[in-house]
Amino acid sequence: AVQRTFSIIKPDATERNLTGAINAVFEKAGLRIIAQRRIRMTQEQAERFYGVHRERPFFGELVEFMTSGPVVVQVLEGENAVAAHREVMGATNPEEAADGTVRKLFAKSIGENSVHGSDSEENAAIEIAQFFSEAEIVG
Ligand code: CMP
């Protein structure tokens, strides 16, 4: 079925001018960018977005990184978009990511791993609503 998922191009990628290169990988995988905005995340936005990781040892580092520079928040649409996006992103740890994936191509480390993608359709809806109104999403 056609789904929507939420995507973030992270500060390590915007810093290296990789927004277009990453979008090209997404589009080649059949994902359509139906909403997109470049923002600087506030501490509050990052802490809320990553709330499920609050107790993890890397939480502070994660919030600091995600607020360290511009990010590009996106809504992607396509057939089985959640799984299709996760496949094309590759494993969280770039050392484990398959050839041709965004993280294999571009990620610097498990923390500075260039992209985020929703892990379920339910979380995608929650994450999309955190950054976009329906009027901003043009499918
Ligand atoms: P993301 O998909 O954005 O969701 C949670 C993020 O936590 C994950 O990508 C990683 O970038 C980050 N993360 C996971 N494990 C670690 C770790 N061991 N050290 C630092 N960051 C991590």
UniProtKB/TrEMBL annotation:
Span of domain Nucleoside diphosphate kinase-like: 2-139
| Reaction catalysed by this enzyme | a ribonucleoside 5'-diphosphate + ATP = a ribonucleoside 5'-triphosphate + ADP; a 2'-deoxyribonucleoside 5'-diphosphate + ATP = a 2'-deoxyribonucleoside 5'-triphosphate + ADP
- What Pfam families does the annotation carry? NDK
Top EC class for this record: transferase
Task: Give me any GO biological process, just one.
Answer: CTP biosynthetic process
**Would you say which domain of life the source belongs to?**
Bacteria
The places in or outside the cell where this protein is found are: Cytoplasm
Q: Where does ATP bind?
A: 10, 58, 86, 92, 103, 113
GO function terms (MF aspect): ATP binding; metal ion binding; nucleoside diphosphate kinase activity
Enzyme Commission (EC) number: 2.7.4.6
Catalytic residues, chain numbering:
116
SUPFAM superfamilies (alphabetical): Nucleoside diphosphate kinase, NDK
So which cofactors does this thing need?
Mg(2+)
GO CC list: cytoplasm
Alphabetically sorted, this entry's keywords are:
ATP-binding, Cytoplasm, Kinase, Magnesium, Metal-binding, Nucleotide metabolism, Nucleotide-binding, Phosphoprotein, Transferase
InterPro entries membership:
NDK-like_dom, NDK-like_dom_sf, Nucleoside_diP_kinase, Nucleoside_diP_kinase_AS
Q: Which family does the similarity line name?
A: Belongs to the NDK family.
Assembly: Homotetramer.
Function (record text): Major role in the synthesis of nucleoside triphosphates other than ATP. The ATP gamma phosphate is transferred to the NDP beta phosphate via a ping-pong mechanism, using a phosphorylated active-site intermediate.
What is the recorded name of this protein?
Answer: Nucleoside diphosphate kinase
Native source organism of the sequence? Hyphomonas beringensis
